[in-house]
Amino acid sequence: MPSQTALASSSYPMWVVKEETTAPLDKARAFPINPAFLVKTRMKKPGSSLLIDTGSPTNVQGEDFIEELRRAAAAAGAPTPRINRRKNPMRLGGIGAGVQEATHDATHTVGLPKQLPGPVPVWADFAGPTLPNSDVPGFIGQNTLKQRRAVIDCYNGMLYFLGPASPQFILPLESRTSHTA
After folding, report:
1. Which residue range(s) make up the domain with 109?
2. Number of domains observed in the structure of the chain
3. Model's pTM, two decimal places?
4. Which of 35, 36, 125, 174 is most buried, judging by how many CB atoms fall within 10 Å of its CB?
């Protein structure tokens, strides 16, 4: 079996940050923490992808991401990003380099692949503030996820956008729920 370092480095460029041991409340279950990695998140294959960021209140994207989508859209004969000046600049921190000011928004028409049911991609608009001189990828933030009534199933790798009716979840025995908002 390959080491975690070898396994992880085959997916994304990364740098080792530090290695420690943790001691949880149950001392008998203390375990070594494997090296943590500072990861530059990008797709392994050429192309661009939106990432879900449940910690960000808003969508956000860097200028490099917009340029990637512009080139891909032009090559596919699809609409290119529409860029508009913001009425009020937005200051954003915690992503990219320090605190940055977004003076423009960009809107892209994107295809959402693997729609179930059916093999045909669904087209949607992705919009958000643009970070100048930044390689930050496109992040889908909380506001969009809430507006679209998104449910994230991490185990099965599914993102559900619920219809207008009230959802009814049937959970397996021993399931736990937590209110996050």
Report:
1. 51-161
2. 2
3. 0.67
4. 35
